[in-house]
Amino acid sequence: MSEQKNDAFEKQAPSAPVRNPYIMNFLKALAEKKDEQRQPDDLKKLLGDMYRLFESMLGQNMVKALPEEVKNQYLEMAEDLPNLNYEKIGDVFDTNVKNYQEIMKKTMKEFAEIYIKNSQFSPEHYPVKQASEQ
Questions:
Q1: What parts of the chain have a pLDDT lower than 70?
Q2: Which residues have C-beta within 8 Å of that of residue 1, sequence separation ≥ 6?
Q3: For FRET with 95, which of 43, 52, 69, 119 sits at 20 to 30 Å CA-CA?
Q4: Other residues' Cβ atoms within 10 Å of the Cβ of residue 43
């Protein structure tokens, strides 16, 4: 990959969220495999959209993996967004989801299959609730 392409991937605004480099590398590899020929800014937007969608799919799969009682408690806790933070979320998932790596692999496989199968990237192709559905 050229240095110019790497710059488009790595430069983020100071207030941009921290992204998992493992997931970003996975998404970049998918875009390359599908031979996405885009301008750097367009590719950066595509990768950002893909990242948000992947993160949503992973989150949904993690919630599905919780024991039913814990899942209900977590969903209730998630309704109180002002008091929800990464520490509370981590406590729930760290103690109740033992197969995180397996869930990550399953989500990556599912995401890749949908992405490669479709001629154009669109959130409608993925099993993730859209903002309008919530």
A1: 1-16, 119, 129-134
A2: 28, 32
A3: 52
A4: 17
C-alpha dihedral sign at 64, 90, 14, 5: negative
Q: What is the pTM of this model?
A: 0.73
Tokens 């008091």, located at residue: 83
Distance between CA atoms of residues 100 and 105, nearest Å: 9
CA 47 to chain centre: 10
Q: What is the pLDDT of residues 66-81, one digit of tens each?
A: 999 999 999 999 999 8
| Token reading at 119 | 């001629």
CB 115 within 8 A of CB 53: no
Distance CA 102, CA 123 (A): 23
The answer to whether the beta carbons of residues 61 and 107 sit under 8 Å apart is yes
